[in-house]
Amino acid sequence: MSEKERETVETARVRQLWHLLEPFHALLYFAPEVEQEMAALGYGTQDRWRVYFPLRAAPLGEVGAERVTSAFYSFSPRMVTEHMKRAWGISGPQGVLAARLRGIDRAYRAILGDGVDGPGLAEAAALARRAAESAATEGRPLAAANAELPWPEAPHLQLWHAATILREHRGDGHLAALLVAGLDPVESLVSFAAIGAASVERFESRGWNRAEWSDARERLAVRGLVEPDGTATQEGRALRRRVEDHTDRLAAGPWQSLGRADADRLADLLGDHWVAVLSSGLLPSESTLGIGKV
Question: Fewest CB within 10 angstroms: 72, 125, 132, 246, which?
């Protein structure tokens, strides 16, 4: 096998493991059990963004909108400010962190049933934890903030915590890839919508208004990245492919540390649990992550 072929195989495995682990993390933002725990703290749950921002930002501590905007990148600063201005007046970050674990514990038990206490999940959790503990966090604020939190004792909660660290590790690297590509926050969404990763309506949930979206599209058109109708040009598609390839390379470290055999074993162990999470119907069929599209 040539060096190029070996790199391609490894990159595909890195991407597959992201696809497998992302749903285990993402339940945090969609499981009714988490929503109930946040409601008990006093957060309004009519709009999921009211709980999304404190749930995801809590590991950073009692930070304000500017640092959350920086770390989350693709959200409109107005939207972040709207949801963060009262976030820590309802509960401090420690209360939200505790609510996260209580809600995920309940959600995993509801979805996975007896599998929560099975040896397969415990083995998967141990492998995922090894990968997460090896993840370099330099220049990765969300990964570092989650990695600094204490590990839960229960295997299913360790699996969730590992999935969260690895997800944010990849996400932090993705922002670096976007910066290298010269895509600002709204341009990153417009260019991703242009290749069909998700609908424009889905990306508009990040809070940018029509004028800002249109201006970003014009800037991309000047660079030859989108057509007048907003679809990507050949160069636009090539740029997004480079961003995704760069992201995969930056996310590879934990899996290289784990080793191919154990990475393959983890993928096998997650299979049935992954199906159960997807079959719960809690996760949206379309997301801004572009899973299955890029």
Answer: 246
> Is 152 contained in some domain?
yes
Q: How far is CA 32 from the centre of its chain?
A: 19
Instruction: Answer whether residue 212 is part of any domain.
Output: no
Digit-coded pLDDT (tens) for 260-281: 999 999 999 999 999 999 999 9
Phi, psi of 41 (to 5 degrees): -80, -15
Query: CA–CA separation, 216 vs 221, rounded Å?
Result: 9
**Residue 192 in contact with residue 224, Cβ under 8 Å?**
no
Neighbours of 8 (CB within 10 A): 12
Within a domain: 252: yes
121: Cβ–Cβ under 8 A, 6 or more apart, which residues?
112, 115, 155, 156, 159, 269, 273
Residues 159-201 have pLDDT tens digits of 999 999 999 999 999 999 999 999 999 999 999 999 998 777 8
* 85 located within any domain: yes
Could you tell me the pLDDT band of residue 4, with boundaries at 50, 70 and 90?
very low
Instruction: Give the structural domain span for 254.
Output: 3-178+244-279
Number of domains comprising the chain: 1
The answer to whether the beta carbons of residues 239 and 117 sit under 8 Å apart is: no
Phi/psi region, residue 108 (left: phi>0; alpha: psi -120 to 50; beta: rest), is alpha
DSSP state of 184: -
The H or E element containing residue 203 is: helix 200-203
Structure tokens at 143: 């990964």
